[in-house]
Design the sequence.
């Protein structure tokens, strides 16, 4: 398969979608990002890397970080973690408060904000140095020592993060938060603020593409079966209220973020990341969705 040629062709085809949608502006620091960029990197399991456009430009990974934090918490707690959250698609917005109240403080899954905030609480309870332990893990899987938090993005989001604060308070009310709520909220936002480029993200996601062997990176150890299950949750819950559409159009497990990134996995073969900041009304990158739809259609490679 000539992936370089394929991604270059698709890169040309998606240019027509470059101006559609709007970048996230509810986080003031994200408003300043140039909205018309497109970056792509596809990394195969045997180490080949193919790239196009702004593959070296770092961006705010936002909710893509939820895969990494969940992997860490799953390694620490195993199935015990399911006492505190579910694994069903939410069918509602990623920051919905209504559903959380209706379900008495048990988030639907680890990839909506409420679930990821509980995951942040679990990490705070277990890790001796949560901030550096999480960063070390992300640096290890992305093979990049310079990947870092963007503290000003985290602060900027905190300054107007009323909804996430409300979610954290409600979780505490239902006894689903053990630590100080302000500490949990700040740690959650800090994890979202990590900046990576398409190459680094594809390297990180390729670690989840091999379901036949154990996952051992930094201090995070997962069985092959746990890695398979993380992929299952990405497929059913990775795209907010658009997970069904993504599965229908693309057919790969993956995770998106409001910074405009989408990383997806074709198990046993490759991980691919597309970055383009303009989002559709569900919060997913317009170009990212289209790019991946064309990729799996043209290569006929998807899990279905
Ligand atoms: N930090 C963002 C929030 O909590 C992440 C949202 C996202 O990427 O989905 O709203």
Sequence:
């Amino acid at each position: 398969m000539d992936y370089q040629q394929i991604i270059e062709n698709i890169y040309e085809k998606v240019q027509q979608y470059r101006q559609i949608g709007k970048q996230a502006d509810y986080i003031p620091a994200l408003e300043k990002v140039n909205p018309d960029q497109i970056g792509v990197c596809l990394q195969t399991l045997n180490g080949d890397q193919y790239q196009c456009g702004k593959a070296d430009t770092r961006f705010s990974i936002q909710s893509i970080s939820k895969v990494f934090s969940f992997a860490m918490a799953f390694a620490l707690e195993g199935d015990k973690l399911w006492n505190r959250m579910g694994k069903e698609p939410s069918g509602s917005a990623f920051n919905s408060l209504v559903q959380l109240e209706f379900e008495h403080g048990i988030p639907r899954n680890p990839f909506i904000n409420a679930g990821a905030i509980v995951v942040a609480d679990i990490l705070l309870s277990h890790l001796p140095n949560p901030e550096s332990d999480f960063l070390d893990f992300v640096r290890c899987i992305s093979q990049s020592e310079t990947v870092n938090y963007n503290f000003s993005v985290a602060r900027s989001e905190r300054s107007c993060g009323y909804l996430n604060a409300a979610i954290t308070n409600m979780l505490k009310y239902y006894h689903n938060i053990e630590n100080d709520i302000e500490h949990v909220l700040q740690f959650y936002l800090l994890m979202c603020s990590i900046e990576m480029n398409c190459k680094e993200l594809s390297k990180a996601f390729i670690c989840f593409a091999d379901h036949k062997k154990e996952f051992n990176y930094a201090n995070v150890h997962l069985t092959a079966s746990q890695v398979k299950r993380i992929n299952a949750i990405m497929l059913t819950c990775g795209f907010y209220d658009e997970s069904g559409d993504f599965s229908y159009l693309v057919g790969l497990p993956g995770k998106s973020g409001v910074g405009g990134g989408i990383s997806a996995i074709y198990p046993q073969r490759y991980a691919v990341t597309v970055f383009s900041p303009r989002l559709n009304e569900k919060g997913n990158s317009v170009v990212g969705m289209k790019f991946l739809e064309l990729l799996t259609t043209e290569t006929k490679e998807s899990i279905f």
User: Anything to note?
Assistant: The chain has a mean pLDDT of 96. The first helix runs from residue 3 to 13.
